[in-house]
Amino acid sequence: MTGFPMERPGPVDVGTGAGCSLPPCGEGLGWGVSPHENSAPFTPSPTLPHQGGGGLSAPRTQRSHEEHMPSAGSLFGCGRMRDGDGGPLRPGGLALTEELVALAGFAPGDLVADVGCGLGATTDLLRARNIRAVGVDVDLDALAGSETPFVAADAVLLPFADASLDGLIAECVLSTLADPARALAEWRRVLKPGGRLASSDVYSRATGGGRLATREEFCRRLIDAGFRVESFEDRSDVLKRFVAEFIFACGSLDALGVRSAALSRNRPGYALIVALKS
Amino acid sequence: MTEPVAISNLVCAACDRPLEMGKVEATYLGQRFPVELPRCPNCGFVYISEELALGRMLKVEQALEDK
Known about the structure:
The complex is a heterodimer. The N terminus of chain A is likely disordered. In chain A, strands 6-5-4-7-8-10-9 form a seven-stranded mixed sheet, sandwiched between helices. By secondary structure, chain A is of the alpha/beta class. In chain A, strand 4, helix 2 and strand 5 form a beta-alpha-beta unit. Chain A is built from six helices and ten strands, in the order E-E-E-H-E-H-E-E-E-H-E-H-E-H-H-E. The relative contact order of chain A is 0.15. In chain A, helix 1 crosses helix 2. In chain B, a hairpin with a 2-residue loop joins strand 2 and strand 3. Classes of the chains: A alpha/beta, B alpha+beta.
């Protein structure tokens, strides 16, 4: 073949010809494309393969137990993978982290643990705001060589004294844990009275019955663990974008252990949650 | 499905310019996300292959479909 002539744009004709063109700023049958110059397309780093799923990566230390390993089938990325801009591979990226930090109201000088810190992007973001943040992850290699302060520990066995932290941030962590109630109890233990838990995570917008917790179940877990839910802000918009970007970059959601049928059944959503130790 | 066409064989019929891989912003159901696709460096038209349409784009539609 010496060339493939592109036709002037018409409606997007998905699957009826050898190919189709899209207008630079138009929309067809649901799809549209336009020039994009500002941010890199989503390209998970091939040099950081990590199939454990979830904010806490596969344990490599003797402290981690099988029952605490991240479960497969989580919808989000993991701490050791980056997107095309070098940010963390999770819905919303660092922009959503900034929203979560603002929602939590962490102040300069606060001592905050970033549980499931992965490569430490959120820890660094907090420290840039003069928040005394410490990363926590079970993966000893994730932050090797980094200047980010971190400790290697399991989310359910934190190396902090009782009531010692002003805040705890956990992005894409709770839903990956086999025993989220145990993690919440541990997180409550290390928080000062009134200390803030800031979490972003997937939840089910279906009526229940799936592996993902519904909003009600998510909040109930927090309340049962001794937290008062201050905010539960739905941000499912970022989840949709994440799914679309991931499929375009990787061909499917297989690398995350997710099947389309599971998506349909669970109707996953994404939320920013802030809870206070009551 | 037809064989995938190498980008080196793609030429914009309107501009007679070979297509180049470039960043474009795809939109679907109100979601915008950056992707790299063959595009004309002159007029900006984007080439969507059948493989892409029946593969990744269809999977995105299925994944984002609200039941």
